[in-house]
Amino acid sequence: MHNHYDILIIGAGAGGGTLAYALAPTGKRILLLERGGYLPREKSNWDPDAVFLEQRYRTDEQWYQPDGTPFSPEVHYFVGGNTKVYGAALQRMRQEDFGALQHYDGISPAWPLSYADFEPYYTQAESLFKIHGQRGEDPTEPPMSADYPYGPLAHEPRIQQIADQLSDRGLHPVHLTLALNRDEAHPEKRPCIRCDTCDPYPCLVDAKCDAQIACVDPARQYENVQLLTHALVTRLDTDASGKRIEQVEVQLNGQLQTFSAEIVVVSCGAINSAKLLLQSGNDKHPNGLANSSGLVGRNLMFHNHSALIAVADEPNPTVFQKTLGIHDYYFKGPTQDYPLGQIQLTGKAKWQRLQHMAPVEMPEATLRYLSAHSVDWWVTTEDLPRLENQVTVDRQGKITVHHQPNNTQPHADLIHLLEDHLRDLGFFLFWRKTMKSAVVWHQIGTCVLGEDPSNSVLDLNCRAHDLDNLYVVDASFFPSMGAMNPTLTLVANALRVADHFKSQLKG
Ligand SMILES: Cc1cc2nc3c(=O)[nH]c(=O)nc-3n(C[C@H](O)[C@H](O)[C@H](O)COP(=O)(O)OP(=O)(O)OC[C@H]3O[C@@H](n4cnc5c(N)ncnc54)[C@H](O)[C@@H]3O)c2cc1C
């Protein structure tokens, strides 16, 4: 079978799904190829044993550390990509993140585009993903042309108490901006029930605005959009000139098939997009496609992430905990003249999650007690782009992730600051777990965009400098990542690239 399309998008996650959604009304023939299927809707979606202990929805693929040690990456191959299990805390990067920022471990480089270039697309993205939030309470909030589409999700009493106590201490706790389909005043009208199985669970009632629910399913309402699942793209072939992608090789339900298109968009997630480009090398592109700069796979960034479980005598009966954030230390700390990052609450840690974090083996009853008294935080600090942090692929397609975290001092500072505040609020026991690189939740970089083909992979429209019809529209394009969660920015970028396509289609 050899089918020709106008636009072929590889990967139906946040980037690819958004692009398909935005281009569907153009009437162009669009093919979306996704290696996974639909995530099964089943009771296990909300079962902590299935999610945390059995890792039911995670790929069983193995990736490798530089010394050859295999690891099991926390990636999820489904329609909707990793957003099927994401925490739905979608934030704009801050205006300053688009400029060069001096960090503890060096400069976070400026983007060749400004916050103003992204602002209209952030507004569209917030509408598409049904963002709830409260303008005006965040000291780091960038200028916004519109209010959030929905009001904030209210804190439950224990969290409101903590918010009030933090405010009394001079902080500015914010309502987290969340992509949930919820009507706080009339909960019967929308599916979100504010449950305790939100992140990192799939949503059984389809209330989480993930890329499948918000983008792919609406795109499929258009006859010109076709989705093929269980379609693993293994190679991109160029024409003889090496300037155009001529065909896309796909393992479709185990059978090799080829497709072609006027425009080919890679959107497999930062690591798999780099893999696909690197393993598609040929005579014209001996180091991999789009890789004349040698930068495909490099500048891999992950964020420095830590979970902090804080236990007090006071019980925490909160069901939906993920409503509060602290951004006061985003750009500097009380004694630190460098950015520290952001703090947010996570979903309520159940005892199964604590089992992973316990410093020693503990009986279930103890873990249940701790879970009933803990308030559970997530601390994020920027990871700076480094050439040596990279993805490599061998001839067999084996992925090796070379990543040494940097900027770890401000991360430690931020955790200490949070603990100091919480200690004064009566918390006495702290468990922290810093995520290893193997977690790969916020994989960013690998195909950075820029104006100069010698030091970037993509141009400002996310087209490969080296090829006329190849684009990359996932988290790969970020020149630096800030410390806000990345998905809203990559969704906004996909909407921006869609506008570029639309203007070309008109011309
Ligand atoms: C547990 C968890 C919690 C998270 N929480 C948040 C959060 O609260 N806020 C936030 O902003 N971000 C969060 N993230 C990160 C967020 O999920 C990612 O930023 C986002 O999904 C990245 O989008 P993407 O398009 O780059 O990749 P993905 O969304 O992963 O999409 C890539 C798609 O490509 C498919 N694919 C890969 N290779 C191929 C191939 N060769 N052929 C065909 N298809 C292929 C994959 O199956 C997948 O569907 C979280 C992630 C995880 C895992």
Features:
globular; single chain; alpha+beta; 507 residues; six-stranded antiparallel β-sheet; 22% helix; FAD/NAD(P)-binding domain; binds flavin-adenine dinucleotide; seven-stranded mixed β-sheet
What does this structure look like?
The protein is an alpha+beta fold. The chain has a single domain, classed as FAD/NAD(P)-binding domain. Helices cover 22% and strands 21% of the residues. It has ten helices and 21 strands. Strands 1, 2, 10, 11, 12, 13 and 21 form a seven-stranded mixed sheet that branches. A hairpin with a 5-residue loop joins strand 3 (63-64) and strand 4. Helix 1 runs parallel beside helix 5 (211-219), helix 1 (14-23) runs parallel beside helix 10 (487-506) and helix 7 (351-357) crosses helix 8. It is globular, with a radius of gyration of 22 Å. The protein starts with a strand and ends with a helix. The mean pLDDT is 96. The structure holds flavin-adenine dinucleotide. Residues 431-494 form the Glucose-methanol-choline oxidoreductase C-terminal domain. Belongs to the GMC oxidoreductase family. This is GMC oxidoreductase.
